[in-house]
Design goal:
Length: 97
């Protein structure tokens, strides 16, 4: 590329500054296009991942919620007396009443 551009600078058809710009533009174009080759290699893995996602979406849920759920009771009659708690049998009690 430089071999073709040097005569253009010598004949004053382009400025010398643009001669330095030509290799930089070529390097930048290759740098921008380099990830495209890797992207083509990832298409199979991406398609397989998409297939697994669609299988999850299309699968029936293991538990079906009722269409009309029963109303929850507001009243609570739970009473706890003499409750103690420890994380393991060797540790001291964390909660003791």
């Amino acid at each position: 590329m430089l071999c073709l551009a040097i005569p253009l600078v010598s004949n004053s058809q382009i400025d010398g500054v643009y001669l330095a710009l030509l290799p930089l533009a070529a390097i930048a174009s290759f740098e921008a296009a380099q990830p495209l080759a890797n992207a083509l290699g990832q298409t199979q893995a991406s398609q397989e991942a998409a297939q697994r996602l669609f299988e999850l979406i299309d699968a029936a849920p293991p538990v079906l919620d009722p269409f009309y759920p029963t109303p929850r009771s507001v009243e609570s009659n739970l009473v706890v007396k003499e409750l103690s708690f420890r994380y393991t049998p060797e540790e001291p009690l964390v909660l003791q009443s």
